[in-house]
Amino acid sequence: MPNKPTYPIFPKALFCKAFFFFCAFAQAFGQVHLASPGRFDALNPKQTVEVIVDGPVPQRVELLLNGQLVAARKEAPWTFVINWNLDRANTLTARALFPDQPTQTSSRTYPAIQVDVVEQVVATDWFPFALEQVPSDLVLTSQNRTLPFKLGAADGFPLDVILLLDISGSMNPSQSQAIAFIAPLTSLSQRTRCFAFDGIAYEISPLPQPNQWQQLYSSKPRSVIYDAIATTCNHFGDSPRRLLVLISDGYDDGSHHDPDLLRPLLQESGAILIWYNPTPLSNPALSRLAYQSGGLLLTGDADQAVAQVQALAAHQVHVQFGENQGDLKLKSAQNIYYPHWP
């Protein structure tokens, strides 16, 4: 009679030890999960995104939309609010960065929302302004044809203001001018928020008191201007009248974005970019972005620059039109600031 094959017996105690070792090993490494929106949740153009991190606390959690960084936080709760286009498929990626373990990611793709619409005409809202007086002689043209439009007061819409302050090491010599510029602008609107950035952008809340601004500055050399602008574009309120005021020397040495990647994000946000540069440095690409958004570059004396921003906000109107076939131009006897997207 043939002998039955024998198999090694795995000791039960050794199995238990291996199991507990595996559990401890898994807990030692952080895991990131996209908690919401779920795959079948209702989606909104302004969407709240919740991220869960299991295990060790990360240095920061970043949120990417279609591969582009749109928001980041350095501490829990890992909750973000983004604006996105639901007419297209979108991929959200949560990325957790840890000091002593590999970066962890979690992604989810959401299909485009299918809407049965035969024809849809969406009105375009502009909020052009001038430095001297409220423009009343405006003419709108497209491809050399005069277009009809509706002209109204801008103050029918609340003004959403985001102040974005560069606190990287290269701005330390210009602290006094930057603070003299930004401090008075905190009262530009009741809907004013403030963000600061060096290697990462974050919100300053509540708004600093006059003697607290200097405490914000860091000695970190890294400056991510384009990433900071991309992040703040997702933090405006529900008003279409939006103003983004950047205080920076224009030097960027670490952004994931470049001007070409940032341009459609800034355009989609509808924000007007005003850049105040208190230094001799220049950044032609950033200047073009400000001009294309309907804003401008300010330099020189901080008090004069503040007066210019206040005048621009005061001399603003609302222009609404339906037809947009490109090559849009807004004409007036005075110098008018309005979007010039290519």
Can you walk me through this structure?
This protein has 342 residues and is an alpha+beta fold. The chain has two domains: 29-110, Immunoglobulin-like (Sandwich), CATH 2.60.40; 124-331, von Willebrand factor, type A domain (Rossmann fold, 3-Layer(aba) Sandwich), CATH 3.40.50.410. The chain is built from six helices and 19 strands. It has a six-stranded mixed sheet with strand order 14-13-12-15-16-17, sandwiched between helices. Strands 4-3-6-7 form a four-stranded antiparallel sheet. Helix 2 (175-185) packs parallel to helix 6, helix 3 (225-232) packs parallel to helix 4 and helix 4 runs parallel beside helix 5. The longest helix has 17 residues, at 12-28. The protein is globular, with a radius of gyration of 25 Å. The protein starts with 11 loop residues before the first helix and ends in an 11-residue tail after the last strand. Residues 18-27 have low confidence and may be disordered.
Mean pLDDT: 88
Q: Largest sheet, described in full?
A: 6 strands, mixed
Q: Approximately what portion of the residues adopt beta-strand conformation?
A: 25-35%
CATH class of the largest domain: Alpha Beta
CATH-assigned fold name of the largest domain? Rossmann fold
Order of helices and strands: HEEEEEEEEEEEEHEEHEHEHEHEE
Radius of gyration in whole Å, from Cα? 25 Å
Tally of individual domains: 2
Strand order of the largest sheet: 14-13-12-15-16-17
